[in-house]
């Protein structure tokens, strides 16, 4: 199977997901994974689709019907995690890491945390953020959940220490789960 990653952006309205799902299904594709959201009146999403190699171009062409309704960009997917070359020792595989971040909202939280992760070669797989009113404190509260992969060569103690120092500096709480 061929993997395609679709990015979708457009004005939010009912039926957008159904329109994409119909095209994918009608052209032999299988909807594998997705993250979809409405943000400030816009619909945004990313969808992983698998399709038989001989039908991939047909599916790509069919998705162009959505022009005007959604902006669809199609990217080739990477090999599945189980498709690594033989001889890749388990000890060299990245380790999962989950971070929970919470604190008073202010500019730069994502920039600072992602910089520390990037400096250590940590790859963010999934990140969700939100701000909400903090009624008890009279301001906005920032919350984030980050799912990432840490290279085997990275010292987790050093990474944890750096994230804890940063959390203190930018006044947020960071909880790590390795």
From TrEMBL:
CDD domains: ACT, ACT_GcvR_2. It comes from the Bacteria. It holds the Pfam family ACT_6. InterPro entries: ACT-like_dom_sf, ACT_dom, GcvR, UPF0237/GcvR_regulator. Residues 5-77, 98-177 form the ACT domain. This is ACT domain-containing protein.
